[in-house]
Amino acid sequence: MPASDSAPAGPSRAGLITSLVALYLIWGSTYLAIRWALQGGLPPFLMSGSRFVLAGGVLFAALWLRGAPVPTARQWGASALVGFLLLGVGNGGIVFAQQWVPSGVAALVVGSLPMWTALFGGLFGQWPGRMERWGLAIGFGGIVLLNLGGDMGGRWLPTLAMMLAPVSWAFGSMWSRRLPMPQGLMSAAAQMLCGGVFMLGFGLVLGEHVPAAMPGAQAVFAWFYLVIFGSLVGYSAYGYLLRHARPSVATSYAYVNPVVAVLLGGVLAGEMMKPMTWVAMGAILGAVVLLTRKR
């Protein structure tokens, strides 16, 4: 959710399309990568925290060497706040829940993100219209169906964390547009560094530790995939879209990711979706289409 300030140059059509495709495909595949990393014995918060600290550190160093200005104290404070909401709570809640919940279901819950974005947009003076309100009602109905179908994993804490994740991400996304964020990609770097530190702290408080045995090749590959593509490429693309596109466009990945995640989970991990889950998917994706359509 990088900076609310405008970039020196306007957005290019190619840049917008490339960023959208990257989010649609890459972030849709990260749910399976997270599943593999967790199955390999990597603890959720330490795994995610180290992923974002490394990615943020590499991006920060590259930008600093190219002469990009270092964030001011106010910008670091804003980045820490947004990093906590987006990564600490948003991403952290999903990763924590995926210890018990299939990757496709986790992606489907994140698919409710545009609904929460529309609601929080109202708090900032942009209340949804009549059709958007119908979309909100249908989407929340889909979330209820997920709970009734028992696809949330049957544990109250992971369910709460997973439900809170898109709420926190949406609120942080909308609020970031009013905060003094760093310029350009430096905003993504600062947010990943701050969010990663928060997640490492969560892991230590919860008593997580690095497994004594070396994780399998699949888990190691998944972790590096998350660092390079999920964090460096994906998060930077999301920041570009938030600076140069409408919020509804920037968050449109949320209704493509579940489809990608379900397909990959079924083909590569043997995940099966219950009939009620397919109905819930139709309700949530239909709601998002109503919410993100161009007026």
Distance between the termini: 24 Å
Let me know the number of strands: 0
3D shape? globular
Question: What is the total domain count?
Answer: 1
Structural class: mainly alpha
Give the helix level as a range of percent.
over 70%
- N-to-C SSE string, H for helix and E for strand: HHHHHHHHHHHH
User: With helices defined by DSSP (H or I, 4 residues minimum), what is the helix count?
Assistant: 12
Low-confidence stretches: 1-8
In short:
With 295 residues, the protein is an all-alpha fold. Helices cover 74% and strands 0% of the residues. The chain has one domain.
SSE layout:
Elements (H helix, E strand, L loop, with lengths): L12 H27 L4 H22 L7 H25 L5 H8 L2 H11 L6 H19 L7 H21 L8 H21 L11 H28 L2 H4 L6 H13 L5 H18 L3
Helix pairs in contact: 1-4, 1-9, 1-11, 2-3, 2-8, 2-9, 3-7, 3-8, 4-11, 5-7, 5-12, 6-12, 8-9
Structure, explained:
By secondary structure, this protein is mainly alpha-helical. The protein has one domain. The chain has twelve helices and no strands. Helix 1 (13-39) runs antiparallel to helix 9 and helix 5 crosses helix 7 (156-176). The radius of gyration is 18 Å and the shape is globular. Residues 1-8 have low confidence and may be disordered.
Search tags:
globular, disordered N terminus, 295 residues, mainly alpha
